[in-house]
Design goal:
Helix content of chain B: 40-55%
Strand order of the largest sheet of chain A: 9-8-7-17-28
Number of helices of chain B: 5
Helix content of chain A: 25-40%
Largest sheet of chain B: 4 strands, parallel
Strand order of the largest sheet of chain B: 2-1-3-4
Oligomer: heterodimer
CATH architecture of the largest domain in chain A: 3-Layer(bba) Sandwich
Shape of chain B: globular
Number of domains of chain A: 5
CATH architecture of chain B: 3-Layer(aba) Sandwich
Distance between the termini of chain B: 10 Å
Distance between the termini of chain A: 63 Å
Chain lengths: 671, 150
């Protein structure tokens, strides 16, 4: 996608490559910090002998006002066009000197900082002779590097003031709402027919045992009624093009077959002859082919499940407002946005692949997952919040919960700890024990992990009310073929006792795994994924909400397992980061990007493969093209090129070679 | 060379030039932290700033070795924490391949190494440097220097 780029500092960008380099070298004493170890006068004398060096001086404090003035004077009086300062690190005063030469009309990238304080004088205090010898090498390398430095321009790229949020669970809702509150138009795309995600399925939230529906409803209503948020349900992402600040996203909105004038009276659903297990209720109740996922669902409009519908058309004739329309078709829409927030959430791990637990097999109907238990406990459940065995509808007298199903398990390939299973298992055990004091509840754990405020207290109080904790991972769930009773085989590893626990019902605390369809979405977004399958963050500590690609942000469990409070915080951070360039209206970017010599290029495409931010595209002729806006200036494409056709400006093979020969002179001599 | 005649100190004293390619983020950061904490290390180490260790190819490593360096190492961010995404892992694979080349040619594979460091901890950089000297000393005693071949 073509983006207009506005050049700034144009006057300061000269075609400096052809002119003769005139280098000024300045050695700083830094009080005694450098001069106490390194003979700075000798360094300056040596620098003066190097080719193209016009001026070489040493001074007490280069970063002081007179020091910076020396730099400026040399540019004015002697026509110095490249500067080398041998002092502290690039981060500390490299910026000061680069700014100073920019004030004199020289591009700031023509300054070369040589770090002789941190890398030399401070670490070689006891060996003055070798420290000076090293400083000479470092300064010569700096001069060699400065000789070929080129101008790098800074461009201002205008951004599209709109954002796309993918997924309308708690993370997506939070991010969309925060973005809209900052005045940014938001397109919110949700795969399912309703918004709210997993949080609406829960019974209570830990540690305060609050009602999740009540917590989330201000947000769902706020998002549905916000003037700046356009909500698209039943929507999938078809294609994404563009780069940071300017994306074009094609979305496909699948038909609901019910028009917006639906009053959600429910007459259509009552007369529908088809009944299938409800996905939203995790199969714990049935729904019709024309249905609303749950009574409080937003949007409240009914939806027709075309796959299961037998097209008897009873609903069409029964609808009092003629809202049902089987002729609706899928609509494709292109939206232009500046930032994308991915909040696709998670899926509950499917324990069927763990063979010894027999989940989902005939005769093992009483082995359920925690999310199913949540649905059973919920106030809107078919059982009226009673716990009844799915097999015979009786009240269970003993319940065993098994932790770490699908997490911390090398055999199924998930090494990570989901981190929330201990908390929700303890929460559910507590609720169950409160409801049925006579029922035995046992939790089989490997480690109980309840970090954070209030969670340890919740664990302790659950122990106190009589929930039994056994340390050990159950090896198998056995079924007595005669009477259908279940037994959980586990070794209590604290007392080294093998146990057989009678279980009327077994609840598996299944892991959080990447959501369905993450593969195609990830490849459309061109972002990288972690080995567990979640979308990988840019930096685990410093930037956990940015993806591998600029302008695409991650919110919530799409980045890794999280609980609700962490998810909300994560989503808020993603929204703030996504909003920054849109509120400002532009992105400023230094064009420190690779250039491709098409005479050398053999169109092998290696650079495209290795480029993590997907900044290299292949055009119709097979030639690679660098997307200067998406490029992150890492230079990884350089060694991947078999013909050295792609070169990062100011880090070219040529420039690095000049620096390497200066640095590596004078190797060891062995007699 | 005869092992019995050469002591570790003899070799260590003569290691004079080790080129370190340090990435702009954790690599440079850890060396700066080491400097600020005044941790002392061998003056043989000379640091070249690159954007990412993924930028360092065999050309740069061979250039350094042919121009007089005793050994080369790349120091990047910790695995999984690359600031440019996965440059350190790509560099690690590249150096593994290069080590194989060295072995095929009959040299020791310790003349080129990949290390990681943490910007907050200068010890990590200094630890890497000490490890380089140790490995290089053993390698030189066994198989000679990069200039000798085998």
């Amino acid at each position: 996608m073509a983006v207009k780029e506005e050049k700034i500092e144009e006057s300061k960008v000269k075609s400096g490559v052809s002119e003769e380099p005139r280098i000024g070298v300045f050695c700083c004493h830094c009080g005694h910090n450098i001069a106490g170890t390194v003979d700075v006068a000798q360094v300056a004398d040596y620098a003066r002998t190097l080719p193209n060096v016009i001026k070489a001086e040493h001074y007490m404090f280069m970063c002081s006002k007179p020091g910076v003035q020396m730099l400026k004077d040399s540019i004015k009086e002697l026509g110095v066009n490249r500067t080398v300062v041998a002092s502290c690190s690039k981060n500390q005063h490299g910026i000061t000197f680069a700014k100073a030469i920019a004030e004199e009309g020289i591009n700031k990238h023509r300054h070369q900082q040589v770090n002789v304080r941190e890398y030399c004088s401070w670490v070689h205090k006891k060996d003055e002779e070798r420290a000076t010898a090293k400083a000479l090498r470092l300064v010569e390398a700096g001069v060699n590097r400065a000789r070929k430095l080129e101008d790098v321009e800074t461009r201002r790229i205008p951004t599209t003031k709109a954002a796309l949020v993918i997924g309308a669970g708690i993370a997506g809702l939070r991010a969309a709402h925060d973005l809209a509150e900052l005045g940014i138009p938001v397109f919110l795309a949700e795969k399912n027919s309703t918004i709210g995600g997993h949080m609406t399925q829960l019974n209570k939230t830990f540690p305060t045992l609050e009602c999740p529906q009540c917590s989330i409803s201000p947000l769902t209503n706020g998002v549905a009624n916000h003037p700046l948020i356009e909500l698209y349900t039943n929507t999938q992402i078809k294609a994404i093009e563009g780069s940071m600040g300017n994306y074009e996203v094609e979305i496909e909105i699948k038909p609901r077959y019910v028009k917006d004038n639906c009053t959600s009276c429910g007459d259509c659903s009552l007369s529908c002859p088809v009944e299938v297990p409800s996905e939203w209720d995790k199969g714990m109740s049935m729904r019709n082919a024309i249905y609303k996922a749950y009574p409080q669902a937003i949007p409240a409009t009914f939806v027709r499940d075309k796959k299961n519908c037998i097209e008897c058309k009873t609903c069409i004739s029964l609808c009092p407002v003629q809202a049902v329309d089987f002729s609706m078709e899928a609509e494709t829409k292109t939206v232009k946005v500046g930032s994308i927030v991915v909040a696709a959430g998670y899926s509950e791990y499917d324990p069927t692949e763990i063979e010894p637990y027999h989940y989902g097999q005939d005769g093992y109907e009483d082995v359920i997952t925690q999310l199913k238990l949540e649905r059973m406990l919920s106030p809107t459940s078919l059982t009226n919040s009673e716990i009844l065995r799915p097999s015979d509808g009786k009240l269970p007298k003993s319940i065993v919960m098994i932790q770490c199903v699908g997490s911390r398990n090398d055999q199924v390939g998930n090494k990570y700890c989901t981190g929330v299973c201990c908390k929700f298992a303890i929460k559910n055990a507590h609720i169950l024990k409160d409801m049925y004091p006579d029922t035995d509840i046992t939790i089989c754990y490997i480690d109980v992990r309840t970090p954070g405020l209030n969670f340890e207290e919740m664990y302790k109080s659950t122990q106190e009310i009589g929930v039994r904790f056994i340390r050990g991972r159950p090896s198998e769930i056995l079924r007595n073929p005669l009477n259908g009773e279940l037994k959980v085989i586990v070794e209590d590893t604290l007392t080294m006792t093998p146990l057989q626990l009678n279980a009327d019902m077994v609840v598996l605390s299944a892991a959080m795994v990447p959501p369905e369809g993450i593969g195609p979405l990830g490849s459309k977004l061109k972002v990288l994924r972690s080995k567990e399958g979640f979308l990988k963050e840019f930096h685990i500590k410093m930037n956990p909400t940015l993806s591998s690609k600029g302008g695409i942000f991650l919110a919530g469990t799409i980045q890794g397992p999280k609980d609700i409070s962490e998810t909300v915080a994560h989503a808020g951070s993603a929204a703030a980061l996504a909003a920054a360039p849109l509120v400002k209206g532009y992105i400023e970017k230094e064009m420190l990007v690779p250039t491709i010599d098409y005479d050398l290029c053999v169109n092998c495409g290696m650079c495209k493969i290795i480029c993590a931010p997907a900044a290299i595209d292949i055009d119709e002729e097979g030639k690679p093209i660098v997307n200067k806006i998406a490029c992150r200036s890492c230079g990884m494409c350089m060694p991947s090129c078999p013909t050295a056709a792609i070169q990062l400006i100011n880090f070219t093979d040529d420039q690095l070679y000049d620096e390497i020969i200066a640095v590596s002179g004078g190797g060891a001599v062995y007699e | 060379m005869n092992d019995s005649e050469i002591s570790d100190d003899y070799v260590k004293e003569r290691i004079n030039n080790i080129v370190i390619f340090m990435c702009n983020e954790c690599g440079q950061g850890s060396a700066n932290t080491a400097g600020v904490a005044r941790m002392s290390y061998n003056p043989a180490f000379r640091i070249i700033r690159v954007q990412c260790t993924g930028q360092v190819g065999p050309i740069q490593i061979m250039d350094a070795l042919t121009n007089g360096a005793d050994a080369v190492a790349c120091v990047g961010c910790c695995l999984g924490a690359c600031h440019f995404f996965n440059g350190n892992i790509i560099s690690m694979h590249r150096i593994k391949l290069l080590k194989k080349v060295f072995k095929e040619l009959g040299y020791s594979d310790q003349f080129v190494n990949q290390y990681t460091s943490r910007a907050a901890e200068g010890e990590t950089a200094v630890g890497d440097f000490e490890n380089i000297v140790e490995r290089l000393t053993t390698a030189i005693k066994e198989k000679g220097t990069i200039k000798d071949g085998s």
